[in-house]
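Readers outside the structure-tokenisation community will struggle with the description of the input data as it stands. I therefore recommend that a typical entry be quoted early in the introduction. An entry of this sort, consisting of the sequence and the corresponding backbone structure tokens, reads as follows:
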Amino acid sequence: MIKISVLLPAFNEAKNLKKLIPSIFKNLKKNKKINSFEIIVINDSSTDGTENLIKNLNKKNKYIKSINLKKNIGKAYAIDYGIKYSKKKHNWICIIDADNQYNPIYINKIINFIKKDSLYINTKRENRKSSFIENFGSKFLNKIIHSFLVKKKFDYFSGLKLFKKSIYEKLNYRGLVRFLIFYCIEKNINIEELSITHSQRLYGYSKYTFIKKFYLFIQDILTILTFIKTTPSILIKFKKKFLDKIFLLLSLICILNFSNFNAVFFITFILIISYLITRYTTLKFIERKNLKYVKKNSVKNFIGFN
């Protein structure tokens, strides 16, 4: 029997949630494979009445809960709170976007798709109904990833997925749920994929502008390289063993040529500054992913949790 927590990360999606949550509940309730379930909205500091909506829904239905964050931290980081505060006995996590582009009937379909050896079930969006910016950005990112980073092709960033909580716990860093599929590919963990029909957003609009999408693209590539293709501990060890020695050598060359102000001096000086900037940003990037930042004092309040 399946014990599952369904997570909905949401920022200003009250209108969509009002329709989506009851539909998810109905689908989960009629699935005979499910022994226990909960629906958790991670409210990423919305300003559209999402918190009051969940309060009202929870009064009528104790399966519906929410974690209301004090400030907006982004979808990837919000999901970590949902997993952390999900019921300990629930060994399956399902994530679904809150924009109504994924029909809740597919939650039951992927649950029914679970086999004895299943660990990660992804969905593949057919005839994707997103904005031009999102479609173009996703296709471009997927092409880069498939061409240069991973050889197995999936709908990497689909907004509906199901996985064993134990797989997520192996990541040891926050903000990496959207990259869990790459971790599974890298570790040869079996991934199954189910085709679904993608729908138009019912209410509101996508939060992704071209600039945000481009920024996310850079972050995604860095994350895959830093946390999936290698690990922070290996990077830090490599820095100490090799990069720090190169830095010392460049510093020595720079000092020896200081009085001449020649081309060698300027080239080594630029390389040293580049190294320091790269080192600082990389360490800051790694530090931001530390699980210690998933803490209770970042939560405004909990609704429906005992």
